[in-house]
Amino acid sequence: MPFKTPIAAAAIVALGALTSFGAAAQGSGPIKVGLMLPFSGTYASLGHMIEDGFKLYVQEHGGKIGGRDIEYFKVDDESDPSKATDNVNKLIKRDKVDVLVGTVHSGVAMAMAKAANDSKTLLIIPNAGADAITGPMCSPNIVRSSFSNWQPGYAMGVVEGKKGVKKAMTVTWNYAAGAESVKGFTEGFEKNGGTVVKNLTLPFPNVEFQALLTEVAAQKPDVVYSFFAGGGAVKFVKDYAAAGLNKTIPLVGPGFLTDGTLEAQGAAAQGMLTTLHYADNLDTPRNNQFRKSFALAYKTNADVYAVQGYDAAQILAAGLNAVKGDLAKRDQLTTAMRNAVVDSPRGKFTISKAGNPVQDVYLRQVTGINNEFRGVAVKSLADPARGCKM
Ligand code: BEZ
């Protein structure tokens, strides 16, 4: 069951999805956007927020990008990598979409990236941080509006190491996102004088944390770094506090641990420090305006996932505006997407050669139902893009 139900706007869901002109000509008719996101399971809330953020941007521009109407096609990927190839092919082969937008889960995104590359379909990734997608699998077809798993992990490692913290343990789901987030943390932490003494994992999306928490209590590290998100993050943070561990061993992580989750986590999350490329209370005209519009449209507060969805639409707009909506001008379109300076609610960011945001990573602290800005953890952080040959 989703832990937070954004009052998803029926008015927006209906947007553009009603008329189909069949296979659109490359320069006329609606652009077909395939949204492949989790609408069920532990990441369901993340998927809904991304969709809502994307559609908000399109609505703000009269339902059009690059002068063309937008027609949506949707698939619930259930955050299940074993179904990912079949699911993405529903959008590529059955619906013949012009552009794919998805997804949240790194394992599912890797299958999407392969299918997008094989079929030369444009892919904009509004969350999944799989390092490989902007590493060895990098391609002109693929741009990310979010982060690489390495980025917020590395930033938190730097923060804890610079504080003089010496001994860390990590706890995470055992799949690409958890492993790469821990790898980033370890790199930043050990470069700054710390040591990771033990890595604990459990399979995605399990939430039976008790044995792991018993192990943390026995080891008594100075800090615990964890990657969890969505429903799993809610339960982990609550279980950690219920075990009394938060009184003696600070729990830190990438911002996913406390983003979009705070109403459900309540007292258990108060005071927690995390690192991410967004903070709720960034007091800029851009963020204030975005949060106001989002709350008005959906009767819920925006979070990082909504920002990433909104920015996925902005990146697509940068490409389509440059070619006046003509998809046949593919090279010009992808170059414009990559050269965009994205005026995001998170702050302006650019896109690396490998297709990943180059962005400030903030240190945030939970206060009430907000992840509040406490400073810039690492400025203009670029993913190392190891293995990208572009
Ligand atoms: C991932 O699988 O890449 C991911 C999922 C949720 C939040 C952040 C990253």
Q: What does this protein structure show overall?
A:
- By secondary structure, the chain is of the alpha/beta class.
- Helix content is 37%, strand content 22%.
- Strands 7, 8, 9, 10, 11, 12, 13, 14 and 15 form a 9-stranded mixed sheet that branches.
- The longest helix is centred in the C-terminal third of the chain and has 19 residues, at 304-322.
- The radius of gyration is 20 Å and the shape is globular.
- The structure holds benzoic acid.
Which labels suit this protein?
390 residues, alpha/beta, six-stranded mixed β-sheet, 22% strand, disordered N terminus, binds benzoic acid
Bound molecules: benzoic acid
Number of helices: 12
| Rg (CA only) | 20 Å
Helix-strand sequence = HEHEEHEHEEHEHEHEHEHEHHHEEEE
Structural class assignment: alpha/beta
- Described by its quaternary structure, the protein is single chain
Largest sheet: 9 strands, mixed
Q: Give the % helix.
A: 25-40%
The percent range for strand residues is 15-25%
pLDDT < 50 stretches: 1-25
Based on CA inertia axes, which overall geometry fits?
globular
- Total beta strands: 15
Average pLDDT taken over every residue: 93
Distance between the termini: 42 Å
